[in-house]
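stage 2 :: seqdesign
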């Protein structure tokens, strides 16, 4: 990856992490801290507020959701890493929930160690923010892999991308076939039509050229798959597809 792309990915990572997630969680906390500081509340007392545990729970939940989506839907990973990783985050969620209960109890007059409570809540917020940052960074890396297919990509990851892309392409082609059979192509895709956004216009010639490119790629894939099957295979991809269809 070139330095320019790395800078763009870094900016996107910070933007998604802070402005997309962190800012909306920490903004209410910042307002509470500012207002209570004017009312004379000490910083040590501010760290015992239950809002910190609530923020940690929200960040951990968002990070866990991203983690599960990345591992199960995008990477198709069903290994022990998913199980152990999700179990670790669930454990943190339980700790944050217990801490929230202690913080609320303190406000009702129950005696709770302020130092331990403050340190635990601050640590949970930091850990949750770092976990969410790592999940978003991993998400951006997977998007780049799917878009650019770097030569250093691991074989297992490349195989997972192939499985996902084959199903995705087949579904999209089936949808295009279904839609084109139900619209007047000359009315919507002729070169004489002036769409509202000309930069995204698509004509019948564009569709024809795209189909020719798809066929060329399909022929290359057909040769690779046929070679992998060997001489004792059922035949080429078209024969296999026809056999499955019947």
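stage 2 :: out
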């Amino acid at each position: 990856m070139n330095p320019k792309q790395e800078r763009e990915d870094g900016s996107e990572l910070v933007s998604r992490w802070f402005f997309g997630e962190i800012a909306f969680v920490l903004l209410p906390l910042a307002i509470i801290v500012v207002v209570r500081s004017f009312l004379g509340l000490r910083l040590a007392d501010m760290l015992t507020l239950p809002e910190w545990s609530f923020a940690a729970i929200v960040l951990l939940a968002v990070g866990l959701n991203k983690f599960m989506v990345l591992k199960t839907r995008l990477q198709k990973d069903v290994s022990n890493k998913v199980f152990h990783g999700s179990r670790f985050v669930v454990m943190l969620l339980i700790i944050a929930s217990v801490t929230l209960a202690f913080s609320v109890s303190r406000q009702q007059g129950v005696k709770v160690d302020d130092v331990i409570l403050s340190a635990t809540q601050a640590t949970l917020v930091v850990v949750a923010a770092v976990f969410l940052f790592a999940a978003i960074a991993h998400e951006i890396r997977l998007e780049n892999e799917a878009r650019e297919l770097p030569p250093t990509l691991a074989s297992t990851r490349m195989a997972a991308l192939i499985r996902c892309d084959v199903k995705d392409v087949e579904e999209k082609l089936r949808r295009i076939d279904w839609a084109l059979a139900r619209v007047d192509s000359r009315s919507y895709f002729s070169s004489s039509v002036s769409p509202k956004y000309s930069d995204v216009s698509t004509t019948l010639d564009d569709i024809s050229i795209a189909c020719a490119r798809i066929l060329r790629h399909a022929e290359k894939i057909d040769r690779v798959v046929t070679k992998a099957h060997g001489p004792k295979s059922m035949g080429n991809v078209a024969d296999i597809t026809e056999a499955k269809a019947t």
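stage 3 :: structure notes
- Residues 155-245 form one domain.
- The two ends are 46 Å apart (CA to CA).
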